[in-house]
Design goal:
about 450 residues, mainly alpha, Fumarase C, Chain A, domain 2, Ribonucleotide Reductase Protein R1, domain 1, 3 domains, two-stranded antiparallel ribbon, 4 strands
Length: about 450
């Protein structure tokens, strides 16, 4: 069954049918029915169709909605798309009056609405997942608020910090990703209904009525834009891609931490896999798959942008491809977040202490506190480290004589600065790795997401 064909005498070839139909839109079944219910109510309220017919259509659509929720709705191969399937089934339920369902509507504004309704729902689910992930990271960080580790720049040890501080960085990323989805929903939840095929309708459609019934802010102000716009899809895919990128960064660190070379973490049996050839292996497959799948979602973002770039207004069949793109990006993130949450729940941390050189900035800042310009203090500490390295020693072996030999303005109290844990404790700036700052951040995260 198709929703067109009056001007055609012959039937579509099987090759054309196979190439142009796409069953991926079947997941839009529920939202297609919900959008149709709002449309029918408007048709009845405005008198475009008799109110009693609107009631019949509404009752039929609600019966079909129940079938959709229960899994009893049957798709058949002759349905060209989800819109056809719903109208075909409605005809089976209520008879010929089903032909009035499409009054004042085109598949162009209908599919645009379906995608917006779908992303409105899945977007909220993504927000909940990401917020839950942020809370789980905060809980994990709380247990390591005082676990001293090195921070890294250029993958070289930088300053001492705490593992809790490091984990919280990903909690804050997840919170921003959740807010990014929330912000995108403001642009997604705008109704295109009433735009028709491209340029509106001669029927007195009330465009705001279904918009309000669906919980959307308003109707789109331009009918061409309403059916042609897919920027909201691209924005949603970007939200997925950015969140996956952040999960991929964490996955990469877990892969490194679980290696023998780093020796920071041990994965539990429940979140590890083995090797078919090497009996000793404990592989971080979840992290590796998240890292790999992040690349595919980045590809989705490129695809949705490229899909739009050459399209003249208004609707073009190219846009049929937007659904597979956004569904893949959405599904990938939806599975990756709980997988990473599970991975982190089954991990045991035992990181080594930072190298002694990571406290060098503390030593320089002690000189700054005595009025020495930072650039000069930086040079003096560099000279001290170089002299110690000449004899195969580290900064943790320095004695007062070593400091004074470089510059007389060093003091005996400076020796206390050479302990990484003390270095972390001396942090006074907000957002730092100081255990008190870590606990403050955890409290703030919980307050924001409570």
């Amino acid at each position: 069954m198709t929703l067109w064909g009056g001007r055609f005498e012959g039937s579509m070839s099987q090759a054309t049918w196979d190439f142009t139909t796409d069953v991926s839109d079947r997941r839009l079944l529920v939202v297609d029915i919900i959008g149709s219910i709002a449309h029918v109510e408007m048709l009845g309220e405005t008198g475009i169709i008799p109110s009693e017919e609107a009631v019949v259509l509404g009752e039929g659509l609600n019966q079909i909605l129940g079938e959709a929720h229960s899994g009893e709705f049957e798709h058949i191969d002759s349905d060209e798309d989800i819109h056809t399937a719903v109208e075909r089934r409605l005809g089976e339920v209520v008879g010929d009056v089903a032909g009035k369902l499409h009054t004042g509507r085109s598949r162009n504004d209908q599919i645009a609405l379906d995608i917006r309704l779908y992303l409105s729902r899945t977007g909220r689910a993504q927000v909940e997942r990401l917020q839950g992930f942020a809370l789980s990271m905060a809980d994990l960080a709380e247990g390591h608020a005082e676990t001293v580790i090195p921070s890294y720049t250029h993958l070289q040890q930088a300053q001492p910090t705490t593992l809790g501080h490091h984990l919280l960085a990903y909690a804050w990323m997840a919170i921003r990703s959740a807010k990014r989805f929330e912000d995108a929903l403001k642009r997604i939840e705008v109704s295109p209904l009433g735009a028709g095929a491209a340029s509106g309708s001669s029927l007195p459609l009330d465009r705001e009525m279904p918009s309000q019934a669906l919980g959307f802010a308003t109707a789109m102000p331009n009918s061409l834009d309403a059916v042609a716009a897919r920027d909201f899809v691209a924005e949603y895919v970007f939200c997925c891609a950015q969140a996956m990128t952040e999960l991929s960064r964490l996955a990469e660190e877990i892969i490194l931490w679980a290696s023998r070379e780093f020796g920071w973490a041990r994965l539990s049996d429940g979140v590890s896999t083995g090797s078919s050839a090497l009996p000793h292996k404990r592989n971080p497959d979840i992290a590796e798959l998240v890292r790999g799948r992040a690349a595919t979602v980045a590809g989705d973002l490129s695809a949705i942008l490229a899909l739009q770039k050459g399209l003249p207004l208004a609707y073009n069949r190219d846009l049929q491809e937007d659904k597979r793109i956004v569904f893949h990006a959405d599904d990938t993130l939806a599975s990756a977040v709980p997988a990473m949450t599970e991975l982190l729940a089954g991990i045991e941390f035992n990181p080594p202490l930072p190298g002694s050189e990571t406290v060098s900035l503390d030593l320089a800042e002690a000189l700054v506190g005595r009025g020495i310009p930072f650039r000069e203090a930086h040079g003096l500490v560099g000279q001290l480290i170089a002299k110690l390295e000449e004899t195969g020693r580290g900064l943790d072996t320095a004695a007062l004589d070593d400091l004074i030999a470089v510059d007389s303005r060093f003091e005996v109290d400076d020796l206390a600065l050479l302990e990484p844990a003390q270095s972390v404790a001396r942090r006074v700036t907000s957002g730092s790795g100081n255990p008190e700052s870590v606990l403050t951040q955890i409290a703030e995260i919980r307050s924001q997401l409570d």
